[in-house]
Amino acid sequence: MKIVRIKADTATLLDPAAPAWGQVQAQDFPMVPTPLKNNPAIEAISPFIAQSTDHGVVHGLRVAAAHNGEVLTLRLSWTSQKHDTIADLDQFVDGVAVMFPLSAKASAATMGSPGEPVNAWYWRADKADQPFDVVAEGYGTSVRRSGKDAKLQSGALHQNGQWHVVLARALSVGNTHARFTPGEPTKLAFGVWDGGNRERAGRKSFSGDFMLATVDA
Amino acid sequence: MAFAPRGAPKEELLRHTRQVGNIIDLNKCMGCQTCTAACKSLWTSREGTEHMRWMNVSTYPGAGYPRDYEKMGGGYAPDKTPTPGKLTTLTDVGDNFKFNHADVYYGGHGQKVHLKPTSAVTGEDPVWGYNWDEDEGGGDWPNGYYFYLPRKCYHCADAPCLKACTHNALYKREQDGIVVLDQERCNGDRLCVEACPYKAIYYNPVSQKSEKCVMCCPRVEQGIAPACDRQCPGRTRLFGYLDDPDSDLYKLIHVHKVALPLHPEYGTEPNVFYIPPFDTTHAFAEDGSITDEGRIEAEVLINLFGPDVVPVIARLKAERSKRQNGKPSEVMDLLIGRNFWDRFKDFSNDPLQEAV
Ligand code: SF4
Ligand code: SF4
Question: ipTM for the complex?
């Protein structure tokens, strides 16, 4: 996909309804349930979650990506009829994440591996303006880092059964976080959790292995 | 501590050198809830824990606590395949009733206003709560019956909660086998709540993390028995290392074999054992005469403790008759538990002394 260069300030782009987003061509990604059943790596980390078969109800994600020379912004849209809240102990909320490799060999399907970390930006509907910065080196190793260090920002809108979420971060915040250089390609992958279907942890839809993205100079 | 890194094999988290555990004698429990109150005031009086009763006592037959936990899955099938489980709701775990205290005490309505609970879930009159079916029990008139079942986390040897957590937040403490849940690692995903067939883990909606019984591990480290065990006025409890052959606990479980785990078919290998109720009530015959039969239906006990409960009850009754006939019975002496130090052995220290 293409991360286009756009003349707009970050504050504008953080609004998912900003007309500026009209200038950015969005791309549709098919999303599939994460392969949990009969997956030995998942069995090892949780034989219980490995029994899951009814997750991954979000089948597509529309992504528009732009940068203004300073900040990378992604506008993520998907269908979720209800904006779920945690009103009772058995309820979960919608979420979305974008993941980047922190090393050349890192795999998205396994969330990295020892020595081959990945970095993700994770947004949850109940903490809509406090996205989490996550780092992982394989299944079950993900750690949430303080969003403040990563200076992640977000904007969200639930309208007509659709979520539109913008995630944004400076192109570079140090080498323990994904770095983006105009003119050089990057790689990314996506995950979506449907709260109404009690999706959380590995119970989600994902876009498969890392995909190449160009970052306009 | 068997505190393994994220992503480490579950065997590392289960590893322990010793195991503490309990016996709870159901023949002596009077349902006073002192154990529940001891636990609640020590551990779950924080915001977001109002609904939690790590220690709880309900009437059997009955829905139990959390409500209908026996129908919610979790644990393992006989071949050790994990059984998918359900999550408890706030109502299942007893709600968090709001009361009209201000109106009753300061509203100036005199006798016209009465104390009234309102469900925190629905804002209406509650339809279920902790101990909602207290003393209802089972059996048909005139042979109605019930008994109390105190429950807490069983600190299972093959703990499904621990196996379910993708973040390795749960682990067994190396020195005593107590299963604890690391609040730093918990993500609030509640996979543990689903996996525990006893529903001994509770979600805290304020901290957005799960919580469970810690077997009072800070007390245990000081040689003090857990609060629920120590406070029990019914002397129903024994606590200690399960591998100590000199302990009363060991004698009752391994020598006399009269203590059983609850729902052994869940496959989790619990470390809290029960002396099943061996029914001192006498059932009425149809003609109204008093028989020597008890009232507790065998299926109820088999359902709770498995088929082994039948010979265990026979053994307990035989021991009781020995005593009734003036002969010695070590089992009866152990069950009477006259001596505090015998019941708690290595964990007989006084919390007030230790605190000084
Ligand atoms: S304190 Fe003892 S007698 Fe009272 S309810 Fe608890 S176990 Fe039963
Ligand atoms: S009773 Fe439940 S919470 Fe306690 S160790 Fe067993 S599975 Fe875990």
Answer: 0.95
